[in-house]
Amino acid sequence: MNDTIVAQATAGGKAAIAVIRVSGSDTFRVMQKVMLPQDIEKLQHRKAVIANLYHPAKGSSQPEFLDQCIVLTFVAPHSYTGEDLVEIQCHGGFVVPHLLAEALIAAGARYAQAGEFTQRAFLNGKLDLVQAESVEAIVSASSRSELKLVHHHYSGHFSTEVKRLRSELIDLLSLLELELDFAEEDVEFADREEILSRLNSLRDLLSGLFHSYERSHLVRQGVRVAIVGKPNVGKSSLLNLLLKKERAIVTDHPGTTRDIIEEAMEIAGLKFVFIDTAGIRSTEDYVESLGIQRSQSVLANADLVLMLIDHSEQLKKEDWEIRQLVLNRKKHSVAQPILLLNKSDLPCVVHRNELDSFAKGFSFLQFSSKTAEHLDELESLLVGSVKRRGLDFQQDDYALLNVRQKNVVEKALSSVQQAVESFHRNLSQEFVSAELRVSLGLLGELIGDVSNEDILGNIFSNFCIGK
């Protein structure tokens, strides 16, 4: 961690500009070797300077010119990493950024490891561990809803809530251990009902935090929407219509789709993953039957189901069988399945009473994959279903971002639950205090007050180079 590191912070390839970062205690000594003396003297904190950069070629009286760049300086501790840091904006492409990185390494820096800039920011107290994890989450965000959630972590609001929980734990621990100190005098500093009430409150808060992971996971991974129905009811046409591109092959021949087609898109700031499945029916075709098996697996594991029927022809046994498969799903769905009465551009031949019976348990909508009639209503129905589940995060929402956070909170919740049970069983308050101390340590691990190199190595190894 004492080395001076360098990395390209922008994606490689053809581009207008590239950004190269240098950070460490020797940053300015490294820069002296790639800049002219008159340009080095211009470097000031948070001031951009236009300067020529050179390769410090050994044994050559004339350094090799590389590029004219903008050099932006940050003096420790007022930088992203908390160290002296320089950001170089050069011309993009494959050659110039690579040569500049080579020159800075020749001048005494080394190439940064994945996530090393953010790891230094954490170790130097510029970010806590939750904020550090949110940096990578911002980079990989794929919807506005996910970005809103991640910004809540990066801003420090989530960590503030965790610190408030820790403060509650410390207050309660202090109260319990004060009574232990005066156990022989039989002094009671807090009513038992008050202690139990505070324990239950802590347990409920941690429980709410633990269960928030399911919501945030759906937001980040996307709501998986299975498009199901018998062959030739318009599933692939619907997928193409939603994506606004020809993603699936569409023909009049039943059984055209034989494999799963999966594509993500954003609607009203929310991420949806639409999955076009093979039409479900009895078939002797081995390949098609494999596709149908996959369709049934997708159906069983989807968060939301769009079932299509062709209302221009009579309902068949296959329609009723697929309907039952949808309604019998064991997975807890985001919302009611949606029934699309497709081909509404054609006359409806299904009797109204039969249609009402078939649609029980569904939200339903008349639709036309051919003319895009009621597409806006379908998108509103999808978004409304998700928002009613609470997946549209607001400014004051708190949610866990990843499995590490989930596992830590689950253990902290288990310890508080054990403390509540010990209290109910009238065990010594030493048992209650011991469990609360475990929970306190775990909440410290959550935000990085307590951590080890293995945890940090695992977290930052998933970052991109330059972050």
Structural features, described:
This protein is an alpha/beta fold and 467 residues long. It is 46% helix and 17% strand. The strands form 2 sheets. It has a 6-stranded mixed β-sheet with strand order 3-4-5-2-1-6. A 6-stranded mixed β-sheet has the order 8-9-7-10-11-12, sandwiched between helices. It is flat, with a radius of gyration of 30 Å. It has helices spanning 27-32, 37-40, 95-106, 116-123, 129-140, 144-154, 157-181, 192-221, 235-243, 286-301, 317-327, 352-358, 375-388, 403-424, 429-447, 453-460, and strands at residues 5-8, 13-23, 48-55, 64-74, 85-93, 110-111, 223-228, 261-267, 270-276, 304-310, 338-342, 363-366.
Describe the structure in brief.
Helix content is 46%, strand content 17%. It has helices at residues 27-32, 37-40, 95-106, 116-123, 129-140, 144-154, 157-181, 192-221, 235-243, 286-301, 317-327, 352-358, 375-388, 403-424, 429-447, 453-460, and strands at residues 5-8, 13-23, 48-55, 64-74, 85-93, 110-111, 223-228, 261-267, 270-276, 304-310, 338-342, 363-366. The chain is flat and about 90 Å long.
Blueprint (SSEs and pairs):
Layout: E1 5-8, E2 13-23, H1 27-32, H2 37-40, E3 48-55, E4 64-74, E5 85-93, H3 95-106, E6 110-111, H4 116-123, H5 129-140, H6 144-154, H7 157-181, H8 192-221, E7 223-228, H9 235-243, E8 261-267, E9 270-276, H10 286-301, E10 304-310, H11 317-327, E11 338-342, H12 352-358, E12 363-366, H13 375-388, H14 403-424, H15 429-447, H16 453-460
Parallel strand pairs: 1-6, 7-9, 7-10, 10-11, 11-12
Antiparallel strand pairs: 1-2, 2-5, 3-4, 4-5, 8-9
Helix pairs in contact: 5-6, 7-8, 7-15, 8-14, 14-15
